[in-house]
């Protein structure tokens, strides 16, 4: 089923009504509070940038498992530069650090024909070891300027704040409406309020990058040639496309976007820390798959995973407990749909899971924080399991291509 703009608007309206009903029934006001969505937006940005980076690489036919390592390089580069030169220089350094990782991945896979998975895993391992070694060398060296400024073996010195913007008047008005907890109206106000209050300029830049990606890859001759390399590189070569050049460009851009995502993590908390990416590169890869290799789908997936990730920061036990009821209702709907389309076994499994979730919800009042902390990863598995039947990856993805092999 092709999603048109009217259908997308209907889905958004339905989701808002469902969330509002869930808030009223469960009393979990955190579901639509502006603070929750501000945190979700900040959590979604690095995941979305990693997913967008994966999209660029895989649309050219190169699998990029190394997104996590490229995010590490971006975060470290941002920390190394940001404490002396500020957050914008940190963002640029993160882009360059990630692009360097992308260039290495392109060299291995495109030029030397290394298996894409092996190369990506090697970059992740290399990036982890390199950042830990350089952190000790640059930030934790005894008597160094970085150590005197607050750096150590595990983290960089702090950097200044990234500027944010707030729409005067509108922000306060939406917040006042949110506090009334009116059905739907306050919920919409809370969500919209997060978009006009203390928004980082890097978040705005990320939104622009998503739009640019769509127009470059789907509305330009450059994008058509790049995507042809991922669908049929031999046919593209026969039409005069320099496949190597386009693959290199795509993978370097992929690394740069992932590096910017890593830089955002460092800039957001004002320092680089060891282990800062926390697997977000892999979740970004999952958003790309869930989004069916399309920018809009990646954005939706990043928003979902960002919301679940933000629950960890806001003590979201009661909120996750409320979401159990929502998930039970959605599984009942899925069971009915599967039954109507003839998939009886899947319908029964969905119904049983819905009943178990409903029992869990009715017999408890909250969810343990240990479960909340793994909620983003559980969500990743569930979403990928449900989306698996409609996925359509590029035809030549992951295949080793050598120039002139079609002759």
Provide a short characterization of the protein structure.
It is built from 18 helices and two strands. It has helices spanning 5-26, 34-59, 67-85, 87-111, 116-138, 145-148, 170-178, 185-193, 201-218, 221-231, 233-238, 243-269, 280-290, 295-313, 317-340, 344-363, 369-373, 375-387, and strands spanning 164-165, 199-200. A two-stranded antiparallel ribbon has the order 1-2.
Name a few traits of the molecule:
407 residues; 1% strand; two-stranded antiparallel sheet; 71% helix; mainly alpha; transmembrane helix; membrane; 2 strands; 2 domains
Number of beta strands:
2
The end-to-end span amounts to: 38 Å
| Helix count from the secondary structure assignment | 18
Radius of gyration: 22 Å
**Shape-level CATH architecture of the largest domain:** Orthogonal Bundle
Enumerate the strands of the largest sheet in spatial order, edge to edge or round the barrel: 1-2
Shape: globular
Which residues sit in consecutive blocks of at least 5 with pLDDT less than 50? none
Return the string of H and E elements.
HHHHHHEHHEHHHHHHHHHH
